[in-house]
Design goal:
Layout: E1 7-12, H1 16-27, E2 32-38, H2 41-51, E3 55-59, H3 67-77, E4 83-87, H4 92-101, E5 105-108, H5 113-124, E6 129-130, H6 132-142, H7 149-159, H8 164-171, H9 175-189, H10 194-204
Parallel strand pairs: 1-2, 1-3, 3-4, 4-5, 5-6
Helix pairs in contact: 2-3, 3-4, 4-6, 7-9, 7-10, 8-9, 9-10
Length: about 210
């Protein structure tokens, strides 16, 4: 369709070579045009405001503001924004949080080119796109009960090796309350002890120690 407007794409990734590779691959398509690139969340926000792209290809892990945080900020300011999350990772919680933030799709960087182009076009047309591996992980995540914000705080401290008394001091709550939160975390993650909880949470991308 030579008379139709191309899909205007913003590529966000902190690695220059990745941005260059994606841009080169997308720009050869007659219906696609990379209008801007950004290496971090702040630059992505500025580029979005300036260029108003029709699709954003967003790296999950960015310096400073994460890809999930950046997606949420863009969607908050521009509710019709169409963000396609791109990552080398596909942990169930990162996929879940990306979609909760407003992403329309999620693909891994190892995806074949044909699927990448299909994902861009699907998201451009307002449809959701998840590659099969990602979709199965998201379905698995949706079957698990969510941790509350307080439980996540406690879990991060547990992962850092802090004991209940230390956690209680930092959060200014009773030690018995911390113990209750830890108990709920173990139950929701279906693990037996604090070490397993920390390991599982890190593997699933529920928390990070960065």
């Amino acid at each position: 369709m030579p008379n139709s407007k191309p899909i205007r794409i913003l590529v966000v990734d902190d690695h220059f070579m990745v941005r260059m590779g994606l841009s080169s691959s997308l720009n050869v398509e007659p219906d696609m045009e990379v209008v801007a690139e950004a290496g971090d969340g702040k630059a992505a926000m500025e580029a979005y405001r300036k260029h108003l792209p029709t699709v954003v290809m967003m790296d999950l892990r960015l310096p400073g503001m994460s890809g999930i945080e950046c997606t949420a900020a863009i969607v908050c300011e521009f509710p019709d924004a169409r963000v396609l999350m791109l990552s080398t990772h596909s942990s169930e919680d990162e996929i879940y949080r990306s979609m909760q933030a407003g992403a329309r799709g999620y693909i891994v960087k190892s995806i074949v080119r044909e699927q990448l182009l299909r994902a861009v076009r699907e998201v451009h047309h307002g449809r959701q796109y998840l590659d099969p591996a990602v979709a199965s992980r998201l379905a698995e995540r949706l079957s698990h009960p969510s941790l509350t914000s307080r439980e996540l705080e406690v879990l991060r401290m547990v992962a850092k090796g802090m004991v209940n008394k230390e956690i209680a001091g930092v959060l200014h709550i009773a030690e018995v309350t911390v113990k209750l939160h830890v108990s709920h975390v173990l139950e929701k993650l279906e693990v037996k002890d604090r070490t397993q909880a920390a390991t599982v949470a890190l593997q699933r991308g529920i928390i990070s120690l960065e």
